[in-house]
């Protein structure tokens, strides 16, 4: 079958594809580790600056508190609080120069105006953005034109706020950052190697399991393919046998007529009988030609063309009018019949309808037949109704047995062949109802859905 042949072409994953897959996963993992390291590096650098800011702020506030106590012990007269704060800031700034990394100190009041200090050596801050950030974060770092760093901290007060900027030697900060970077590189490299090794181990384990399951699937698929081929050949053989039987059954009536004429040689010279002989011979030729073409296409098992159901039903309408002058056939087209039927299905459907037509006409020469066709649950449903008098109840249960017939000299093989042809398409044929007025047969055939029935599957 089609799916068997496709699955049979499956191959175990080549080694190059395994390496490509592993490389892509490893690259994604490496990208995630590098991104994590960059985030960690940024946070650690920030923590170094924050620790430095907290240290300088604590040292500066401690110096101011100590200086204030000294002022009180010496009972110096109080002056305006602002002047006292500025004098304390100035003295604390001088003491801050004793810290190794501090090269200068600049102070600003709550209006962001520089306070004159002897320790101011850098360029003053321009703009209010740094002050706002210092108020929100507690500190802010900037790079000075000299290449050193300016670390501003915010000193809140009950009355006013002050901003102290320390000009720092950049080497201590750079050394701390470099140590962090070196540590992260070492730890990241170790983590990367461990992750790649772990990934490779998991990857190999998964690939081996996939390969084992794929190998087992291919083995089972090969068995399924062989079984499917045998089943397809069986279906094809069954269908060909049914078609051959249908031909023999269809030839029985015209051959019987010729045999009856041949028994009376005098009747052969009559003009009416000559016309009947020619008509019968023409009928036999048509049956043989049609059957041979159908058998040929079925034996090939190739879909060479498709028809809509409406186009297909137009064929028996024309043939019926030619063969049965007294009978009448009506095809109801109340439903959309635009769905497709391939040539293989069409040949078998026509053979089934032809046999059903013949049975009805033989039961009643002026019979009236009607065909209703509709689509339901992915199937074509064809209902054939006649007014040929119905089938006796005693025969209905064994109607499709080859030895059961309602005709005096019938073998019953016609309906048995029709049912066999329907089943070869994964369809069905059954008697829906039968009474004194007539009978109704229902033929069900799967619609084309981009796949074929087992009988037509490629092998």
Topology (elements, then pairings):
Blueprint: H1 2-8, H2 15-73, H3 81-96, E1 102-108, E2 114-115, H4 129-137, E3 139-143, E4 149-155, E5 162-168, H5 170-262, H6 271-300, E6 306-308, H7 309-323, E7 328-332, E8 340-342, H8 343-363, E9 368-376, E10 379-386, H9 393-396, H10 413-424, E11 428-434, E12 439-446
Parallel strand pairs: 7-9
Antiparallel strand pairs: 1-2, 1-5, 3-4, 4-5, 6-8, 9-10, 10-12, 11-12
Mean pLDDT: 77
Uncertain spans: 1-12, 76-81, 450-459
Structural class: alpha+beta
Query: If you consult CATH, what is the topology of the domain at 301-456?
Result: Heat Shock Protein 90
What would CATH call the homologous superfamily of the domain at 301-456? Histidine kinase-like ATPase, C-terminal domain
- In order across it, which strands form the biggest sheet? 2-1-5-4-3
**Which sheet architecture does the biggest sheet show?**
5 strands, antiparallel
The CATH class of the domain at 301-456 is Alpha Beta
Indicate the percent of residues in helices: 55-70%
Q: Note the run of SSEs as H and E.
A: HHHEEHEEEHHEHEEHEEHHEE
Strand content: 15-25%
Outline type: rod-shaped
Termini Cα gap: 6 Å
* Count of strand segments: 12
Explain this structure to me?
The chain is α+β, with helices and mostly antiparallel strands and 459 residues long. It has a domain at 301-456: Heat Shock Protein 90 (2-Layer Sandwich), CATH 3.30.565. The protein contains ten helices and twelve strands. A five-stranded antiparallel beta sheet has the order 2-1-5-4-3, sandwiched between helices. Strands 7-9-10-12-11 form a five-stranded mixed beta sheet, covered by helices on one side. It has a two-stranded antiparallel sheet with strand order 6-8. A hairpin with a 5-residue loop joins strand 1 (102-108) and strand 2 (114-115). The longest helix has 93 residues, at 170-262. It is rod-shaped and about 155 Å long. The protein starts with a helix and ends in a 13-residue tail after the last strand. Mean pLDDT is 77; it is low at 1-12, 76-81 and 450-459.
